[in-house]
Amino acid sequence: MKRAAVLMLAGFVLGAGAGCAGNGAAIGADVVAGDPGDAVDGSESGDPGDLPGADVPDVGGVPDAVLDADAGAEADACVPDCAGRECGDDGCGGSCGFCDLLGPECTSEGHCGIEKCDWYLDRPTTWGPAAVVTEMALVSDGEAVKPNCFDYTGDGLGDNGAKGFAGQFNGPMADALAAGEFALLIELVGVKDVANAASFQLNGLVGTSTATPPTISGDFLLQGASFITDICQPMIDFAGARIAAGTLSAGPDEFQLAIPIQEGLVIDLTLIQTKLRGTIPAGGSADGFTVENGVLSGVITKSQLSTAADKMKEFCQAAPAEPRPEWCTYLDISPMAYTFFDLHDNGDGTFSAKSKDLPGDAMSICMSFKAQPARIVGYEPFPR
Known about the structure:
Strand content: 25-35%
Number of helices: 9
Order of helices and strands: HHHHHEHHEEEEEEEEEHHEEE
Number of domains: 1
Mean pLDDT: 77
Radius of gyration: 20 Å
Distance between the termini: 27 Å
Number of strands: 13
Helix content: 10-25%
């Protein structure tokens, strides 16, 4: 299992799991002000995602040719690739094997056990083509979800149980990206041709603009938070990513999210069945590439969020009355947002749409994104 800190999801996951956004903003009232009936009965009338102020990129206008190409790609049989690997992802959603108790961790190279490294001597010093995310939002329009998000229930339509949180997530995310507070970078490791690449590792990295003031273009320095420094590996990566005729796809994969709430409190969550897709227009090179019509999806379970919420409540109960974290107040008054769990976990890696007989115990998450060319040129200084 990978160890990953998916910073882009932190504010949303907290909102979904504990009724509070990462910046301490309450979400319960705004969600109710929409139409929670859609989240409860699965209908599209009164879509709770269509909340005032939700700022979502228009992903509904994806060209038919792109959708047809994607459908054709998914229809082709996937060939597992386990050459030189003893564990981990086989590139088709399966596994190349599992590690025993003597080596419980599987490295990104597909070997059991963790090979230690000297971060300052062994860390990567060259990088593949990169792109920086300029827009990212939960897809809130039900009619845009169906053709663009990934299908987890097998009915041929995309899923996004989290769409009702768009009003709380999209605005702050757009502001943070525009202000250059952090940069979300996509790196294609070892890729020479960004229009076609059979199998490679896709890394998700966090960086900082070298410009003053920061910009969302140009050159970037990587933050130490992007890596597990003990093994010199990125915290977020997809093995077996591929590009076919300009269509980028990666996953399914599994992440463990380590979300720092504040000093002394880190919430661990696992995002499963994570998938990524996007179009890379012509013109990309080693100096960067563009991503259009990007989609990032995953699933988080009710038990995961319940455990996280309980941990947060215990922290708040043990905290001194003054100064008590502000977000504890919202945790006290906002119930768990179980109405947005749109999937039933079948226990075999598949999901069904929730129903009277199949209660919702997992939530699909679907975000659209766009990215533009970027170059990774080094690391931010951070303490030894």
